[in-house]
Design brief:
The complex is a heterodimer of chains A (114) and B (108). Chain A has 114 residues and is mostly beta strands. Chain A is 0% helix and 53% strand. Chain A contains no helices and eleven strands. In chain A, the strands form two sheets. In chain A, strands 2, 4, 5, 6, 9, 10 and 11 form a seven-stranded mixed beta sheet that branches. A four-stranded antiparallel beta sheet of chain A has the order 1-3-8-7, with no helix packed on it. The relative contact order of chain A is 0.33. In chain B, a hairpin with a 6-residue loop joins strand 5 and strand 6. Chain B is mostly beta strands and 108 residues long. Chain B contains no helices and eleven strands. In chain B, strands 2, 5, 6, 9, 10 and 11 form a six-stranded mixed beta sheet that branches. In chain B, strands 3-8-7 form a three-stranded antiparallel beta sheet, with no helix packed on it. Classes of the chains: A mainly beta (114), B mainly beta (108).
Chain lengths: 114, 108
């Protein structure tokens, strides 16, 4: 089975711009979660989608949004970028959104905001 | 609210020494607990979960509800164990909460 894929792998943007990141889950996985990883804060949960519906949401401002398509692929959008948004954004998929399911992580998208 | 604390940012040991990576959690219900590992230049991956009660790569972790801990242990560390380790909790809301991670360095 192919693993979780994320595109692009690297992005450089300037403050005020917006960005869209993409994630393709493992085949058969219907749940996709997004995380922000920074050296200072570690892994912070952004949101999780299951069957095209947002099931859970972390404590991030409304500039961070996402969506999921019928094929379970997911996109994450960040508008009005700030310097502090520079981070590694990880996507993870699992079969469903119940608590005991293992999450499979993608390689991440490294976003740099200048 | 659920919270996971990994008190050590860095743990440095010599090959063959015992290792214990600490994880304490705060959650009022019955948690599902996991350890994830990230080796250099590799993806974050599941190491073990408490419901499986298994040993992976020589690592074990026991859930202690009284002390609200889920420490990861290995009796004899190997150089290939050097990695970043994250403790994670899933509670009733199913939102996974990760600790900030502990970097384990095993010296030859």
């Amino acid at each position: 089975k192919a693993g979780v894929t994320q595109t692009p792998r690297y992005l450089i943007k300037t403050r005020g711009q917006q960005v869209t990141l993409s994630c393709s889950p493992i085949s058969g996985h219907r749940s996709v979660s997004w995380y922000q990883q920074t050296p200072g804060q570690g892994l912070q949960f952004l949101f999780e989608y299951f069957s095209e519906t947002q099931r859970n949401k972390g404590n991030f401002p409304g500039r961070f949004s996402g969506r999921q398509f019928s094929n379970s692929r997911s996109e994450m959008n960040v508008s009005t970028l700030e310097l502090g948004d520079s981070a590694l954004y990880l996507c993870a998929s699992r079969q469903d959104w119940t608590s005991y399911n293992e999450q499979f992580f993608g390689p991440g998208t490294r976003l740099t905001v200048l | 609210a659920q919270r996971v604390t990994q008190p050590e940012k860095l743990l440095s040991v010599f090959k063959g020494a015992p290792v214990e990576l600490k994880c304490n959690y705060s959650y009022s219900g019955s948690p599902e607990l996991f350890w994830y590992v990230q080796y250099s230049r590799q993806r974050l991956q599941l190491l073990l979960r408490h419901i499986s009660r298994e040993s992976i790569k020589g690592f074990t972790a026991d859930l202690n509800k009284g002390e609200t801990s889920f420490h990861l242990k290995k009796p004899f560390a190997q150089e290939e164990d050097s990695a970043m380790y994250y403790c994670a909790l899933s509670g009733g809301s199913y939102i996974p909460t990760f600790g900030r991670g502990t970097s384990l360095i095993v010296h030859p």
